[in-house]
Structures are given as C-alpha cells and as structure tokens.
Amino acid sequence: MKKRIGIIGGGAAGLFAACQLKRLKGAGDIEVTLIEKNSIPGKKLILTGHGRCNITNRKEVNRLKEGYHDADKFLYPALKEFGPEDTVSFFENGIGLKVKEEENNRIFPVCDSAVTVRDRLVSYISDSTKTVCDAVVKDIRKTNGFEVDTSKGKFTFDQVILSCGGMSFPKTGSTGDSYRFAEELGHTVAPARGALAPLKAEGKDKSFCKSLSGVTVNAGVSLFSEGRKAASKEGGVLFADFGLTGPAIMEISREVPKDIRGKDVYIELDLVPSMKDEEFEKELLDLIGKHADTKITTLLSGFVPQSAATEIAARAGAEGLYAQGFTKENRKNVCRETKHLRICLAEAPDINTAYVTRGGVSLKEVDRKTMESKIVPGLYIIGEALDIDGISGGYNLQACMSEAYLASKNILSSD
Ligand SMILES: Cc1cc2nc3c(=O)[nH]c(=O)nc-3n(C[C@H](O)[C@H](O)[C@H](O)COP(=O)(O)OP(=O)(O)OC[C@H]3O[C@@H](n4cnc5c(N)ncnc54)[C@H](O)[C@@H]3O)c2cc1C
To answer: Is 131 in the pocket of ligand 1 (CB under 6 A)?
Structure first.
C-alpha cells in the first residue's frame, strides 16, 4: 500500500517539501497531498523580495547560520545537507529558473518575478502531488497515522508535514494555525511576535520622522529599553510617515520587547557612524572656525542629507544660526542630535506588517537532523511554524528549503 503523506499548508515550506518529495522519491511508493486554505498556494511567496523573490543567500554555511540568531545550531545540519548551492541547483536544473547574485550574496531569479517562482513550483509538483485548495484544516489528530479534518472533508495520512507558517502578514493565510495544531498535539510554542518589521514612532518623534519621510541614511542603530542597550547594528534606515524602516531597523525590530506600554523604549540613531563622538565634534568645531559666515545647516549637510541637516538643526534649537554665533551649548546639542538621535517607539512591531514571526514550536521538541517531532512520531514541522526567524537577504526561504529537504529525505527513508 502507498504511503500517504499530508502537507498541511501550501506556502514556501509546503511547496518546497512537495518538490523535494518528488525529486527524492525514486521508486518510493508514496501519495502526496498538499492542503492549502487559499485558492492557490504561495500567497506570501509571491510578495517576497518586493515581488522579485530573494530565494537564498550564497554565503558559506558557517557564516550563513549566523543569520538565524539563537536557532543557528539547530539549523546547521539542515543547511549543511541542503545549502544555498543546492537551492540554486534546484532552481536552475529542477524548475528551470536561472538565478543571479546581487549585493550581499543575495540570490534572485533572473526573471525578477516571485509569481514565476511560485508558478514553476506549482507546475513542478502538478504530476506528483494532489493539491487541495480552498480547504481550511481545522484539526489534526494522531491515530495510527493522522486524521486531518478540513472544510473539504476528512483526510487520513501516515505522515504529516506541518507547514502552516507563522502569524505575520496574516492576509496571506498564515494566521497562527500551526501553533494551535502543534499545541493540541502536545508541543510547546514560544509566543509569536513580529520580526523584520518597520517601527512606529511616538508623538513628536513621529512628526520628526514624517518631516524626513523618504530620506535614507546609513546609520548606527541602537535599541534601548529601560535604560539598557538591548541591541545595535549599522545599516540603511529609511524615515517614513509612521516612523522608521529600512534594513537595519527591520533587523533590530525582533529585539523590541513584546509589550512596551509604559516603558521607556527608543531607537538611537548615529547619523555619522564613521566617526567617534569626539572626532565629529572636533570636525564640526574646525568647520565652524573656518566658515564663520556659513549657516550651521550647510556645515551639517557635509555629513548628512540636506533635509536631515535642517531637521536636526531645528531639533537642536539651532535653526537658522550661523557658525559665528554658535555657542558651545549649540554645538553640544547639534552633536547629540546627530550622533544620538532618539526616536521613541509607540508600540512593539506589528505582526500584521512584520515580514517574519519570532516564536513558534520549541526547537527542543524537534529533531534537527530530520525535522521530525520528538513528541509525535510521524509529524514533521518546517518553515515559520518553528521558532526560527532569519535576517533579511534570502535567509528565511533558505531555511524553508533546507528543512523541507530533511523532512522529505527522512520520510522517504522511514518505514
Ligand atoms: C512581504 C514579505 C517579503 C518577504 N521576502 C522574503 C525574501 O525575499 N526572502 C526570504 O527568504 N524571505 C522573505 N520573506 C519571508 C518568507 O516569505 C517566509 O519566511 C516564508 O514564506 C515562510 O514560509 P512558510 O511556508 O513557513 O509560511 P507561509 O509562506 O506563510 O505559508 C503558510 C501557508 O499555510 C496556509 N495555511 C495556514 N493555515 C492553514 C490552515 N488552517 N489550513 C490550510 N492552510 C493553511 C497559508 O494559507 C499559507 O499558504 C518575506 C515575507 C514577507 C511577508
């Protein structure tokens, strides 16, 4: 009798698992069913990489694993067995999509189309997988195998891959059902919160960000919570109407406490990260001495974009001042606002706009060499359902790929 395999959730991880089961199957006698609640799989996948799909990151595995925070050790065997080069090879030789490398080792399909990626994956599995769409899974029960209750009826499987995603961008279908199913089956789930998310500023700091909306800077970014530096990073920051976004902000967002109401939580921006505080102040002092007839905003615009110079001078109470009238206090204030620009946060990252979910099924309860649950034999858990979130740059899809590979390989080799 054929082994019946159920894939619960047809997002990136579920689609990749169906692909790997087909690719590795050989003479294996299996019947694969993928159940997806949307009318078509991969609704989140088509949004990835701003519609271009950053499929992986071509770093050496020892460096790549550093992008997964505390999950680095857990993911290592998966990345080692199926790493970026394997992903590239599958895309080029398996689904026929040539890839290209961009800045910071990010890999995209040459066609720059996430929709094409999704369509090629769906087409690749069309002869090997029964895809049941518009079917909401309501319940997964462990019997001899598994009974899966859906809005389109009951299914029975010998093994199940749980890939219903996390909770971020819920309009794409990932509404946290993975966590409910896993908990009902006996797993521990770390509370979900947003990661890789933009950050909303509060009150006057929101108005400040709005006045610079659209301006991008390279900045040192530090997160402070209740007087303690919680994290720091350097990179691109984009001012927006609501607050701050851009790569460095998105990456630091996972460290913002889950509930910041009544707490003193802020981002400190260093707009001239290439200079130490003393160096910057000395440089400014020299310029003030040499250019007495020049406005302070003009001098500052040698370090930051003109619009930022104007807003920083205003924040420092030095708007319209010329170098010649500049006091020591004026100078200290301008230096503070340039090198330690405080943006108070209004709330923790919003799960609705976060790119990934921090939290999920405890990694202690999943075998990192197979992705099989240590609690429920025959249950495999992959993708954002797990307590893994990677940095941006293709890390999250690569994790899905590597985990899907291990789960598929193990399913095919098990009795
Ligand atoms: C805007 C955006 C851009 C991104 N860009 C990138 C990028 O360029 N590179 C990168 O590496 N990562 C990127 N990511 C992250 C990446 O998309 C996710 O990490 C990845 O999609 C997670 O895959 P998953 O299969 O675990 O979950 P999902 O892709 O969320 O898939 C879960 C699937 O399960 C289905 N489902 C849920 N509950 C049920 C149920 N009860 N019954 C049936 N089906 C159900 C959902 O409808 C969904 O299709 C991006 C994320 C976002 C939001």
So the answer is: no
The confidence score (pLDDT) of residue 26 equals 79
Q: Sketch the domain layout of the chain as residue ranges.
A: 3-194+356-413, 198-349
- Give Cα 272 to chain centroid, integer Å: 27
As a whole number of angstroms, the distance between CA 408 and CA 267 comes to 42
Q: Give the CATH class of 198-349.
A: mainly beta
CB-ligand 1 contact for 49 (6 Å cutoff): yes
Report whether CATH 3.50.50.60 matches the domain 3-194+356-413: yes
The pLDDT tens digits of the residues spanning 41-82 come to 999 999 999 999 999 999 999 999 999 999 999 999 999 999
Mutate to test the pocket of ligand 1, among 164, 177, 351 (most ligand atoms within 8 A of CB): 164
Q: Is the CB of 389 under 6 A from ligand 1?
A: no
pLDDT of 164 strictly over 90: yes
CB 238 within 8 A of CB 244: yes
Q: Tell me what the mean pLDDT of segment 250-266 comes to.
A: 94
pTM: 0.94
Q: What is the bridge-based pairing of β-strands 243-245 and 199-200?
A: antiparallel
Cβ 242 vs Cβ 206: under 8 Å: yes
